[in-house]
Amino acid sequence: MTTATLAAIVLIGGFIALMLMRVPVSFAMLLSTLGCALVTGTNFSVLVRQMVDGANNFSLLSIPFFIVMGEFMSAGGISEKIVDLANLAVGRFRGGLAYVNVLDSMFFGGISGSAVADVSSLGSVVIPMMVKQGYTEDFSVGLTVTTACQGVLIPPSHNMVIYALAAGGGVSIGSLFMAGAVPGIVLGCAMMALCLFLSLIHISEPTRHSLI
Fold first, then answer.
1. Are 104 and 86 in contact (CB under 8 A)?
2. In a 3-state reduction of DSSP, which class is residue 207?
3. What angle do CA 74, 101, 150 make, to 5 degrees?
4. Is this prediction's pTM over 0.85?
């Protein structure tokens, strides 16, 4: 067995083993990487310097600011306003509250750029409303989590910032933002189409799941 194969086994196997032991993801990645470095004989001083150099980047400051902005919006009540705006646009249609869930995630993803901030801010507002309107809890939670993935595509997305930096500066962050807008909108429209299909199956008569 070559050193590279053994290092890959330690890296992947160690990470999976630590995850099964319920070790936090960040520590599992750190420990498995250190184990891989030990196998390959990498100098720890070099490894630490590379970690510091990778984190010492001005562009990475946008990531915590995106998430903090989403938390500010949640605490300030802007999340409810976004839901109201989405409700005015699509809340009147059959199964409209499901469309509202998709559309408000699209709006919020374009502001915070974080799927986690999307779920934490809008989920506490939309999920109870959907359950109260007669949607199942599984569908409400599943739709909220799925629609939050639009935040990864719709700019500004901190995943795109990380990818551009990991690519060594050969990819423009602005170009990635522009490239993610259309796929994000298409993803949202596709999820609305799926919600329409499900509403035609499960709702016998036209209803207005409106928040008003």
1. yes
2. coil
3. 80
4. no
